[in-house]
Amino acid sequence: MNLQRLEYFVAVIDAGSLSRAAAILDLSQPALSRQIALLEEETGHRLLTRHGRGVEPTETGLALLGHARGLFEGVARAEADMRERHKSPRGRLTIGLPPRVAHTMTTDLVQSFRQQFPDASISIAEGLSVPLREWLIAGRIDLAVLFDPPNSPQLTLETLVREDLVLISSHALPARIKLADVGQYELVLPSGPHALRQLLEDAVQPRGVTLRVVAEVDSIQTVLPLVARGVANTVLPVSALKSWPLRTPPHVAQITSPQIRNRFTVAVPKARPATQLTRYGLELLRRLIQQHYGSR
């Protein structure tokens, strides 16, 4: 059934005559009459009764009128819903964050997202960079913050911030320390798969430096209390000092020769089409990382 002819049919009934409807629709009356006749052929029923004052719907015409109005009302609701979704889309955005980033940024991230998209939901998945990268590729999450990820043909990577790695201790340290001398200190570090541990190992290995790792703890929030108690020292990005558990600040030494810097990156799967939610989520991550961790 031709929907435009249905629109003409409703317009004729609302106007009460073919001539008035033709004027409203900016059609000639013969053309409008032809369209009504074709609609009657399509339905196999006479739809209008003509009289001196204009036209009235037949019983079948009244039935079709009800269907037509319901159809057009449905279309109008669909259009309104699509416009509303464009303004405030529904759906879910899942963002992966390393634990220390989640600890710092989750409140701001969720609050800002909910203010922008009250009809959508957001999910924060915490994990180390290696599993977060795997979740991105597998399609389990939409965006992620990763530390020092390897390049991947499946991901778009954007470096937002670079941080210096520093030696942290509860005991006195020089202001600067060469990387070769870091091997003299007992360390508590994340385990091998952790991006930070891999970055440090890659820096010391070509120089023949062996790290004296006395404990492996993947959570930086747990590493720092161990350092505060004097169990061992650690090497962490400078922003980790925000989580230092004591009022008395730790002793910190800048690592030199060479300086080691990590990469704060945001990663997006290349195969997944961008949506309004993912575009906003990406921009929000950029803004919050700059706010909390500074510029490159």
Question: Could you explain the architecture of this structure?
Answer:
The chain is rod-shaped and about 105 Å long. The protein has helices at 3-15, 18-25, 29-43, 59-87, 99-116, 129-138, 179-182, 195-204, 220-228, 276-293; strands spanning 48-51, 54-57, 91-97, 120-126, 143-147, 155-169, 176-178, 186-189, 212-216, 234-237, 251-256, 261-269. Helix 1 packs across helix 3 and helix 2 packs across helix 3 (29-43). The longest helix is centred in the first third of the chain and has 29 residues, at 59-87. It is 45% helix and 25% strand. Strands 3, 4, 5, 6, 7, 10, 11 and 12 form an eight-stranded mixed beta sheet that branches. It has ten helices and twelve strands. It is an alpha/beta fold.
How would you concisely characterize the structure shown here?
Helix content is 45%, strand content 25%.
Indicate the overall shape.
Answer: rod-shaped
Would you report the number of β strands? 12
> What percentage of residues falls in helices of 4 or more residues?
40-55%
The proportion of strand residues reads 15-25%
- Structural class by SSE content: alpha/beta
As residue ranges, the low-confidence spans are: none
- What is Rg? 33 Å
Order of helices and strands: HHHEEHEHEHEEEHEHEHEEEH
Round the mean pLDDT to the nearest integer and report it.
92
Give the SSE map.
Layout: H1 3-15, H2 18-25, H3 29-43, E1 48-51, E2 54-57, H4 59-87, E3 91-97, H5 99-116, E4 120-126, H6 129-138, E5 143-147, E6 155-169, E7 176-178, H7 179-182, E8 186-189, H8 195-204, E9 212-216, H9 220-228, E10 234-237, E11 251-256, E12 261-269, H10 276-293
Parallel strand pairs: 3-4, 3-5, 7-11, 8-9
Antiparallel strand pairs: 1-2, 5-12, 6-10, 6-11, 6-12
Helix pairs in contact: 1-2, 1-3, 1-4, 2-3, 5-10
